[in-house]
Amino acid sequence: MASLCAQKCIPSIYGRFGHVRSAVRAASSLVAGEPKGPTVKTQIPGPRSKELLQELNQIQQAGSIQLFADYDRSIGNYLADVDGNVMLDVYTQISSMPLGYNHPHLLQMLTENPHNIKTIVNRPALGVFPGADWNSKLKNVLLGIAPAGLDQITTMACGSCSNENAYKAIFMAYRQKQRKGDFTPEEISSCMINQAPGSPDLSILSFHGAFHGRTMGVLSTTHSKAIHKLDVPAFDWPIAPFPIYRYPLEDNKAENAAEDKRCLAAVEQLFEDYAKKGRPVAGIVVEPIQAEGGDNEGSPEFFQGLQKVARKNGASLLIDEVQTGGGPTGKMWCHEHFNLDGPPDVVTFSKKMLIGGFYHTAELKPPQAYRIFNTWMGDPGKLVLLEGVLEVIKRDNLLEQVKRSGDRLLLGLKQLQNEYPALISRARGRGTFLAVTCSSTKLRDDLVGRLKTKGIQSGGCGEDSIRLRPALVFQEHHAEIFLDRLRQVLSETK
Amino acid sequence: MASLCAQKCIPSIYGRFGHVRSAVRAASSLVAGEPKGPTVKTQIPGPRSKELLQELNQIQQAGSIQLFADYDRSIGNYLADVDGNVMLDVYTQISSMPLGYNHPHLLQMLTENPHNIKTIVNRPALGVFPGADWNSKLKNVLLGIAPAGLDQITTMACGSCSNENAYKAIFMAYRQKQRKGDFTPEEISSCMINQAPGSPDLSILSFHGAFHGRTMGVLSTTHSKAIHKLDVPAFDWPIAPFPIYRYPLEDNKAENAAEDKRCLAAVEQLFEDYAKKGRPVAGIVVEPIQAEGGDNEGSPEFFQGLQKVARKNGASLLIDEVQTGGGPTGKMWCHEHFNLDGPPDVVTFSKKMLIGGFYHTAELKPPQAYRIFNTWMGDPGKLVLLEGVLEVIKRDNLLEQVKRSGDRLLLGLKQLQNEYPALISRARGRGTFLAVTCSSTKLRDDLVGRLKTKGIQSGGCGEDSIRLRPALVFQEHHAEIFLDRLRQVLSETK
Predict the structure, then answer these.
(1) What ipTM goes with this model?
(2) pLDDT tens digits along A275-295
(3) Taking CA atoms, which of A284, A394, B277, B397 is between 20 and 30 Å from B52?
(4) DSSP A181
């Protein structure tokens, strides 16, 4: 048990929280107490999960549930379930657990600092009565990792809310540029009945395959799966093609550059078309990697081109980093890989950031109060946890760890696609934000299911891809376990 | 200090959290440690709040901020600020603090139960991997207080999200009734480009003066203030008049009944108009008391009539209890005052419930998974706190307390409007969810401002009303302090 001594805080945390410790664990784990590998005792979902699922189905639509977890016994990269199974988790709650489960530092933030507990109990209306330390938290935590050039910050509760409010800020800025002086009486009266000019006919341009959330504004810019959208009214807003590349990228440069051009030309055309339609484009929203839509990458040149088109047309560029932000690509923000000519106008975040919100330029700050506003405007309790996460990222050099683990994973995926070219292809991504395409949806679902029986919790995306979304504490030895189990299920595929 | 012995848990909590205790406090306070009254040391906002406000304005639009609070020193009904002022809070973070500040029972939930801390640190994707105790929490906490007849529960993070997703469930149920069998290929392909029939042209009927949130779907049903809506595109959905009554209600029965009829007839007409327009009404959304819009009440007969109109037209009735729910009207749900013929189809909540979500009928449960879904689907950490809140509501009979305090407040407001008929009128509401109308917007703003200088934190609503939104632990002696200070500012009005 010598390894437990490596982090001095562990014994007391364990003493107070009574973790079930694995007697044998990987010597080099960044999170003390991790087992050395997965343990599978039952089918997954196991009998207890199935019982609970049946019960839950009586009171809600529970068809999306995969298993019931035992969070008290989960640790680091390992997710425990109610049937005694312990899985290596490369999906981490749809990419929303930056340090995995029960990280000692986060538990410590809440058990050893009464102020943090009070911050959770006294959730304020941040837009009216922020707490004494709110400014310093915004500055030290959120602005400390802001994308270069973006010095304004608005907090929200979740990803959908962040995008919704960012769109609103974009519409407001767009109209503000056209306005001379105050709102007109016509604007004030017409907006109250949802009519122009107060409720103007403006649009946000999005991409096929995009996912920006599920509330009704952002859902109009989501185009990843029909089941997300069926039966819900939507705004008639422009939708452009997103590049579809040939892989490996290094062998298809000319063709992929032509694909970028095609998509950028379509974006320009849509600006024209929607201006003619009387529904001008106020902003472009785009993911640095389309995640839900299938881990579709865009090249740096594509994003540079988009920024030019946006600027030329007086529109804002919103980069949606809800899934890519917070480190999994090896940089804090994925768009930092793109060498843009200055910052995008807005960057939204949530998930691994634990709190939602958006960074933006001063131009996108509404000149009047109460326009971007709601009761809570985020949650200081989540910022307490994010502060702890950033401390660990720094202390343990986790962005470097992500690069190392990502390199190992990507190399392994490429080896496997060479071994099994009829089954998987297109290994791609940045950092540990990686995916492979399977030869069919059926095979993808089958592989994800069989990986579970080998103790790996993974997830799908798009029609036929498997995505990797491990925590930032995912290390090379975890990558070896994952690749080994993936090789097993591939070799057992008939 | 004998009073501290009344609650056995207090000494240890104080020992660990180091509250600054007031040596003198009201003997009968439900929250130990409350001061006996407000203390005002500076103008409000004071110099430190002003400094912090200036700083915050550099990084965000902070124009809505009233003061910076010291939440570590706030207690029960008393809000402390960074300048040493301590105010009796009858606004409680826009009505979102059910037990006021630092309630010992809530602090205890987090300091004495490691499982609860782990629940906060391991926030799951509830729609995929709920924790072992999630079912029992839903059943014991949320369904334990469900409106009669509603046995389905969907959790969300905030009020806007709850309404957005409830609208989506309404649209889905409406289309489901029209559908024979599966989605058609046309529906599946058209929804991906935001077009009918997959993205159908359906609407939600709302009321003038309503507030249902600020994301783009629900914002199309919000009509309380222009500043909430300006420059944001909106759906062209029907908007009906909400009753405007003559007060006192008991002296104007016939006239108010006629007002109900007029509004209900307008609702019926809008159903016809929008059906003809090709944009049928799938649901009606309504607040039991229009809060942001000015604390406008509807009679039980009005709501009974709405339910009939909805049923007759095959539309759902959504009662938005985001502000009214959780006890402030003296019942857990305000619509329980209305003697409806069976439950409404959906009831949404947030604020005092700490977690967002909606109760609904089985008919509004989508037959397919992933349709009402997002990453987090609420937050079990908030349900931990709500469980504590409900325990205290039961233990301390807080709904009875609300009735007693509300009776005292309403009586006092009526006395004051008789004394100052040129200044305030229309004292109204249920429980402690009360308001008075001022003779002008200017007077209202002035009274709210001067109440602060007397140590009362209140809030406005609508054009010219002051609203009371105290915590459920607001008692008769707090009411006396509030009424006394209100009498002072009225008497000093020139």
Answers:
(1) 0.94
(2) 999 999 999 999 999 999 999
(3) A394
(4) S
